[in-house]
Design goal:
alpha+beta; Endonuclease, Chain A; 3 domains; nuclease; DUF559; endonuclease activity; Very-short-patch-repair endonuclease; endonuclease
Length: 334
């Protein structure tokens, strides 16, 4: 039996106290604190719910990730750790909780009465573990390698980027783990994704753009996460082509959806234009649904801006960014 983590106020009934905590408890704990009769009554009235063999929680909180993780650890006992997508969620690398809580145990251990929402992963080695949100868990970068094949491409890329953003050393750990850990599925794809993040990708959209959209010889010279300073500020560009002084921005729905974000982007684009840098913006939808159009458009713009355009009727702006300017008398009103 685990040590008590919360003690009710004397005189409080189980029905009053249990809904106030998200923790799970062994039946023996609750009977010691209250009585067997109160536990039975709480179960029959729907106040308490059996979440694992011999383990109960408030029905109000029974479906929450926090309660399930707590119950999974109590069910598993010692020499067990939260792993896989559950560890990533606790670390903040996943926004949506997984449908099952993964418990990692030594390979020789046998367990019975597994709850349907628990998955058991048996390992022949002891994984690197840390305390994540107050819970014994497999180190998130290691858990990411374990769960890689079970996550959708966008989820696995986003999770790794989140881990690296929170702790840059996670990249080195993921690199070593992807190479050294035994029995990893999709090891080559895993290593390729780690390499993309090491090359500067900071989101799934950037990984997708590198792998599926801006591919080919013309795009090999693009600088990733290139920082430029202008009179208006300091900006980091998703991709930058030095030959044409063109920035390529990948606009995900999360960070470019609101009016404030739209105004911020307009100011940014104007500041960059003031130093001769043209900004090409591609939306998440276009990048994922129309990659060929994005590729062709970017390639054409880079080609036109890299080649000087001269005309007897127009002037030119000299420098790496050569853009044709029509004379005022050639512009007519509609």
């Amino acid at each position: 039996m685990t040590s008590l983590r919360s003690v009710p106020t004397p005189g409080t009934s189980l029905a009053q106290w249990l809904p106030r905590t998200w923790r799970s408890y062994h039946g023996a704990e609750l009977e010691a604190l209250f009585s067997h009769r109160q536990l039975v009554s709480a179960i029959e009235s729907g106040v308490a719910k059996r979440v694992a063999p011999g383990i109960y929680a408030s029905t109000t909180h029974a479906e929450s990730m926090a309660t399930r993780v707590d119950a999974a650890m109590q069910w598993a006992g010692s020499e067990a750790w939260i792993g896989g997508a559950a560890s990533l969620f606790l670390a903040g690398a996943l926004r949506t909780p997984p449908s099952r809580v993964e418990v990692v145990v030594p390979a020789a251990r046998r367990m019975s009465g597994r709850p349907r929402w628990v998955r058991v992963r048996r390992l022949s080695y002891r994984p690197l573990t840390v305390m994540v949100d107050g819970c014994d868990a497999v180190e998130p970068a290691i858990a990411w390698c374990h769960a890689f094949s079970e996550m959708a491409p966008d989820v696995r890329a986003s999770a790794l980027c989140e881990l690296v953003a929170a702790d840059p050393t996670a990249l080195e750990l993921a690199t070593r783990a992807a190479h050294d850990l035994p029995r990893l599925r999709e090891r080559k794809r895993m290593a390729a994704l780690v390499a993309r993040v090491a090359a500067g990708a900071e989101s799934y959209l950037e990984v997708h753009a590198m792998d599926e959209v801006f591919v080919g010889r013309r795009f090999r010279a693009l600088l990733k996460q290139h920082v430029v300073s202008t009179g208006g500020g300091r900006y980091r560009l998703d991709m930058y082509d030095a030959a044409s002084m063109t920035a390529i921005e990948l606009d995900g729905a999360t960070y470019h959806a609101g009016v404030k974000e739209w105004q911020r982007d307009l100011r940014r684009d104007a500041d960059l234009a003031a130093v001769g840098i043209l900004t090409l913006r591609f939306s998440y939808r276009d990048l994922t649904e129309r990659p060929q159009w994005c590729r062709t458009t970017a390639r054409d713009v880079l080609r036109l801006r890299s080649v000087p355009v001269r005309s007897e009727h127009a002037g030119t702006v000299e420098g790496p960014s050569t853009v044709q300017i029509a004379p005022l008398n050639a512009i007519s009103a509609p």
